[in-house]
């Protein structure tokens, strides 16, 4: 299949999750909405259900969700609820609500109250102290509770073999996305920022084995091409989510390619694999969660060493980028609190960066465009 056909398919999926949901339902499948962050999607897949990511929306405005949410909740959380209230996601058979940040914790109860009997709302509390045996056990207990609720929806038991099979499917999907990110850097003349975003975003709305097969085909096509001689500049993107095509178009207008990302919705979601064929597959998933590192949203016992800041600074250098663009979600406490440390690491490494305040109700990107254009000029001078 040609590269263009594959890219068009990814773009179509990324831009129409509602259509994907309708398609799954037409096939008689049950679908579970999965909110950020780090829900064990493998359990959903193991149950024979379809996991569908819910990271808000770039095309909706907060209206009905206002009844349930404090105004200072980020738009990602509020617009996910909006989609549950305005009929967009009515066909879901349940949702999983992780509670990693101070918005998602109370929001999990807003989802529960607002959904009432409409659909099951599965609560998930990850531990921050996740490394010690009792932390692992806490994760297993939480995942077991999620598994029990999923079994009720699926009408079947999820066996250890089911989970091990799902882990293999997900590890493969993560590996092929990591490979794609590298190939996107080598072929940034073809994989422009809007396209890169669409390919990675589509993963949230497809069954992972089907997604992997399609992405393997795209990777094979890209590998067959010579590495591009990029004359523009390159950046690393950082933040929670940056999937608005109108905003990403500003990169393309200024010949700025994305060399790598430190984005929760993109690479941060597929850096860490689970062990395959563990005797206890739930323990494999708990250990996978414990292994997540360099993450704004999770406890780092060595945070005073600013390991995360240095990790991101190294990513900029190793990917060949000249700078970093940070997309700061409005009202996102974890990202705002971490910013001074990231800034220090970037400044210490001599890496220029800009911080763009965004939210999902933004429709006018004039200011961001100007900032990206000015930043591109600075990076061009530093090349
Ligand atoms: S954007 Fe920030 S505040 Fe909102 S859900 Fe994510 S981590 Fe929490």
Largest sheet: 4 strands, parallel
- Record the strand order, biggest sheet: 2-1-3-4
The gross shape turns out to be: globular
Structural class by helix and strand composition = alpha/beta
Q: Hey, roughly how much beta strand do the residues contain?
A: 5-15%
The amount of helix comes to: 40-55%
Sketch the topology as an H/E string, one letter per element: HHEHEHEHEHHHHEHEHHEHEH
Number of strands: 8
Distance between the termini: 37 Å
How many whole angstroms does the radius of gyration measure?
Answer: 20 Å
Average pLDDT score = 96
Quickly count the helices. Answer: 14
Which ligands does the model contain, each kind named once?
iron/sulfur cluster
Q: Which stretches of 5+ consecutive residues score pLDDT under 50?
A: none
Keywords:
4-stranded parallel sheet; 383 residues; 8 strands; 14 helices; alpha/beta; binds iron/sulfur cluster
Write structural notes for this entry.
The strands form 2 sheets. A 4-stranded parallel β-sheet has the order 2-1-3-4, with helices on both faces. A 4-stranded parallel β-sheet has the order 6-5-7-8, with helices on both faces. Strand 3 (94-98), helix 5 (104-115) and strand 4 form a beta-alpha-beta unit. The mean pLDDT is 96. It has 14 helices and 8 strands. With 383 residues, it is α/β, with parallel strands linked by helices. The structure holds iron/sulfur cluster (SF4). Iron/sulfur cluster is lined by residues 36, 74, 76-77, 101, 103-104, 240, 297, 329, 332-335.
């Amino acid at each position: 299949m040609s590269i263009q056909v594959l890219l068009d398919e990814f773009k179509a999926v990324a831009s129409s999750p509602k259509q994907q949901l309708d398609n799954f339902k037409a096939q008689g499948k049950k679908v579970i909405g999965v909110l950020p962050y780090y829900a064990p999607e493998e359990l959903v897949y193991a149950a024979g259900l379809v996991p569908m990511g819910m990271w808000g929306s770039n095309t909706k405005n907060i209206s009905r969700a206002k009844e349930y949410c404090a105004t200072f909740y980020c738009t990602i959380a509020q617009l996910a609820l909006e989609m549950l209230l305005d009929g967009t996601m009515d066909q879901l058979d349940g949702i999983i609500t992780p509670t990693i940040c101070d918005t998602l914790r109370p929001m999990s109860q807003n989802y529960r109250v607002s959904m009432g009997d409409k659909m099951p709302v599965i609560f998930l509390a990850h531990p921050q102290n996740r490394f010690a045996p009792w932390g692992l056990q806490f994760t297993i207990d939480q995942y077991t509770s999620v598994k029990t609720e999923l079994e009720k929806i699926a009408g079947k038991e999820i066996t250890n073999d089911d989970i091990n099979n799902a882990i293999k499917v997900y590890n493969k999907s993560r590996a092929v996305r990591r490979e794609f990110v590298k190939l996107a850097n080598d072929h940034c003349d073809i994989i422009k920022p809007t396209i890169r975003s669409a390919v990675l975003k589509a993963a949230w709305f497809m069954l992972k084995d089907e997604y992997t097969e399609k992405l393997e085909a795209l990777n094979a096509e890209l590998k067959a091409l010579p590495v591009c001689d990029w004359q523009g500049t390159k950046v690393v993107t950082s933040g929670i989510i940056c999937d608005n095509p109108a905003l990403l178009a500003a990169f393309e207008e200024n010949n700025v390619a994305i060399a790598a990302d430190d984005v929760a919705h993109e690479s941060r979601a597929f850096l860490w694999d689970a062990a395959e064929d563990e005797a206890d597959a739930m323990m494999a998933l708990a250990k996978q969660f414990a292994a997540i590192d360099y993450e704004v949203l999770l406890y780092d016992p060595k945070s005073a060493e600013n390991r995360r800041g240095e990790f991101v600074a190294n990513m900029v250098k190793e990917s060949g980028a000249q700078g970093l663009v940070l997309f700061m979600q409005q009202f996102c406490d974890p990202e705002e609190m971490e910013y001074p440390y990231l800034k220090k690491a970037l400044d210490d490494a001599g890496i220029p960066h800009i911080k763009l305040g965004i939210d999902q109700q933004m429709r006018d990107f004039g200011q961001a465009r100007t900032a990206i254009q000015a930043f591109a000029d600075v990076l061009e001078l530093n090349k």
